[in-house]
Specification:
Blueprint (H helix, E strand, L loop, with lengths): L7 H13 L5 H8 L6 H13 L3 E9 L2 E8 L3 H11 L4 H15 L7 H16 L5
Antiparallel strand pairs: 1-2
Amino acid sequence: MKRKRLSNTEDEMMNLLWQEGRPLTSLELAELAGDGRWSSSYIQKMLAGLQKNGYVEVCGVQRDKNHYLRQFRACMTKEEYVAEMIEREGLDAAAIARVAVALVRKKRAPGQRHPELLDQLEKMLADYGQDGGEG
């Protein structure tokens, strides 16, 4: 499925879902956003759009006093979303790897090493080899 790019507000909502890492109701999203930034109807409208475009799905129902609220969860990780958007720009897997290396170089101090990053990359390469390069 080819998804449209998230708007700034949709991106904020998805970031709340990604950061929490658990299903959330519209009330919980409103509380996490803070300061009454989003009205209940606005949140419902955004969730409907995100659901239509395959970014979120209803995964349960939660009772709140006298109401039942739908719970929503992200259908993809933030990393999967970013990879999808990068691919839309015409970059292949090799180019994405070069972008990752450039990001690490940009963030590190001169002479600094990242053994945990190397461990993660080695694990990813091993996983890639095990599944035949698919996935």
